[in-house]
Design a protein that fits this description.
Strand order of the largest sheet: 1-2-3-4-5-12-6-11
CATH architecture of the largest domain: 3-Layer(aba) Sandwich
Order of helices and strands: EHHEEEHEHEEHHEEEHEHE
Strand content: 25-35%
Number of domains: 2
CATH topology of the largest domain: Aminopeptidase
Structural class: alpha+beta
Number of strands: 12
Largest sheet: 8 strands, mixed
CATH class of the largest domain: Alpha Beta
Radius of gyration: 21 Å
CATH superfamily of the largest domain: Gcn5-related N-acetyltransferase (GNAT)
Number of helices: 8
Helix content: 25-40%
Distance between the termini: 34 Å
């Protein structure tokens, strides 16, 4: 049985090195390998780690507060020795009720371990990256005009967002003020974010931040007309013009846009997912 030691703030650098090793092997979100990324995932609640005979941190897991979600990972060179199972047992034993597992870089062996323990995948996204090769959007689809993000176009962005996603199960339905305030980050790129209008009605949008396409949406009546492709190419070209040498995005594994992004030159760079155990009634909970 491995010795599980409590994680402390002094472990952050070692946690980042461990996360980077997992990213190199499994892919996933690049920000997961930064000090800020591991702090956000592993220092918001109690956690434990395992060190090998040389003192190197080779496995770690942590719960958030109020102990409803957990994440963990094992160094690629230390897999197959039971460390993942020990971390999972610790998370389940210390959770406050039903547990959701947030795995930002899902290795095949990790998914198999969770399935064997009764967890089921409830959400998954492909992480994708495009390096340049330039991409030109070309002319907008017929009947469409495009406006970059600014204070005047903000309401149109919000209307396009609601029109694209409000019919989806679990839509969070933020107010315009809430949704627009979420765009106000230092990395937000208004020049690479655009809203598409047809007869002055918002029919699609895209938002971007440094090296990232954050959201792409097209209202149902305009799907299948090439608008999503054009918006993506618009944002990629604008990010390139701003000096970014790569662009990342995430897309749900069930979203047909995955094939579109591959045609636009994005490559799969791993999988991020959420897992949950059914409760006693057999349902997955909220």
């Amino acid at each position: 049985m491995p010795t599980l030691r409590p994680l402390v703030d002094a472990d952050l650098a070692d946690l980042a090195h461990l996360a980077q090793a997992c990213l190199q092997r499994d892919g996933g979100l690049p920000r997961f390998g930064t000090l800020e990324g591991v702090a956000a995932l592993l220092r918001r609640g109690p956690g434990v780690g395992v060190r090998d005979a040389t003192g190197r941190l080779v496995a770690a897991a942590a719960l958030d507060e109020p102990r409803a979600a957990a994440t963990g990972f094992v160094h690629p060179q230390s897999r197959g020795a039971g460390l993942g199972a020990a971390l999972l047992d610790w998370c389940v034993a210390h959770a406050a009720g039903p547990l959701t597992l947030r795995i930002e870089n899902v290795p095949p062996e990790g998914a198999a371990l969770l399935e064997a323990a009764g967890f089921r995948r409830i959400f998954a996204e492909h992480v994708m990256r495009r390096t340049y090769a330039a991409l030109s959007p070309g002319p907008a689809p017929s009947g469409v005009t495009c406006t970059a993000f600014n204070s005047a176009s903000g309401p149109d962005f919000y209307a396009a967002y609601r029109g694209s996603f409000a019919d989806r199960p679990g839509f969070p339905d933020p107010s315009a003020a809430e949704w627009l305030s979420d765009l106000n980050s230092d990395d937000f790129r208004p020049a690479a974010s655009a809203v598409a209008l047809a007869d002055s009605v918002p029919v699609g949008f895209i938002t971007a931040s440094a090296q990232w396409i954050d959201q792409v949406g097209v209202v149902p009546a305009w799907r299948g007309r090439g608008l999503g492709r054009w918006l993506t190419a618009y944002a990629v070209a604008a990010l390139q013009a701003a000096g970014d040498d790569e662009v990342w995005l995430c897309v749900n594994v069930d979203n047909p846009a995955h094939a579109l992004y591959r045609r636009l030159g994005f490559d799969d760079q791993g999988l991020r997912a959420r897992f949950r155990r059914p409760d006693s009634s057999g349902t997955m909970g909220p």
